[in-house]
């Protein structure tokens, strides 16, 4: 004999107050990231959320990827997630990288190819792996560095995509040496030719930062003056 249905009134159902916001944020993240395997990605998402770790979520929807029906593997948006998750440690274990890679539903074969190409052991230099990830995206040395700059930059989208010169030097040197066809003298000459432009850019950047700082200080003084006048009148 089936059990009778139990009816509850609204007062008996306790809905955690934080639940709506959690579900709303999760839904937005899933739409923005477009994971291949929603359940697998969801497990990684809530695991990171419960531990206070960086979430496996793209900054924005990659339209060219979202409209494709076949698995494209690593994308700039997914590589940027991995960078945010793993770069603070400088080095990471192979197991940790595999877990993050799996959480993004990326092909295992592609990861094994990159690990083999870099001859990595149990401990992985993150920036070297990141460089290889950019190489997988770009194909050529110049295209790989372009992806690296676009992923690492703090400039707004569509801006100059500037990154610290020492970071550029490390990425370029590693990829060029790994290529094997670029002699060290050519690497040194290329980097030396960039130095004057770097110096000019640094000066310009310092001037722009000074202007922004002066603008912030002026705004703060104006706000304080207006607040004081409002109190008097």
UniProtKB/TrEMBL annotation:
Signal peptide: none annotated. Coiled coil: none annotated. PANTHER family: ROPPORIN-1-LIKE PROTEIN. Keywords: Cell projection, Cilium, Flagellum. One of its GO terms (cellular component) is motile cilium. The gene is ROPN1L. Belongs to the ropporin family. Gene3D superfamilies: cAMP-dependent protein kinase regulatory subunit, dimerization-anchoring domain. The keyword GTP-binding does not apply. This is Ropporin-1-like protein.
């Amino acid at each position: 004999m089936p059990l009778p249905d139990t009816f509850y009134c609204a007062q008996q159902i306790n809905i955690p107050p934080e639940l709506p916001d959690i579900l709303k944020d999760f839904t937005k993240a899933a739409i923005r990231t477009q994971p291949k395997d929603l359940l697998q990605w969801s497990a990684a998402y809530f695991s990171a959320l419960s531990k206070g770790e960086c979430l496996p979520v793209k900054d924005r929807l990659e339209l060219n990827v979202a409209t494709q029906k076949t698995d494209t593997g690593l994308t700039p948006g997914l590589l940027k997630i991995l960078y945010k998750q793993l770069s603070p440690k400088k080095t990471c274990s192979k197991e940790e990288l595999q877990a993050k890679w799996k959480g993004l539903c990326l092909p295992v074969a592609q990861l094994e190819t990159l690990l083999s190409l870099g001859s990595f052991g149990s401990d992985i230099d993150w920036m070297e792996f990141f460089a290889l990830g950019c190489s997988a995206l770009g194909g050529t040395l110049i295209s790989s560095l372009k992806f690296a700059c676009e992923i690492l930059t703090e400039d707004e989208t569509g801006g100059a995509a500037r990154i610290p010169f020492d970071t550029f030097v490390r990425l370029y040197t590693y990829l060029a040496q790994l290529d094997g066809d670029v002699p060290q003298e050519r690497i040194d000459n290329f980097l030396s030719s960039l130095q004057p432009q770097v110096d000019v850019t640094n000066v310009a950047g310092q001037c722009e930062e000074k202007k922004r700082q002066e603008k912030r200080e002026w705004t703060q003084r104006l706000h304080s003056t207006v607040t004081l006048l409002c109190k008097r009148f």
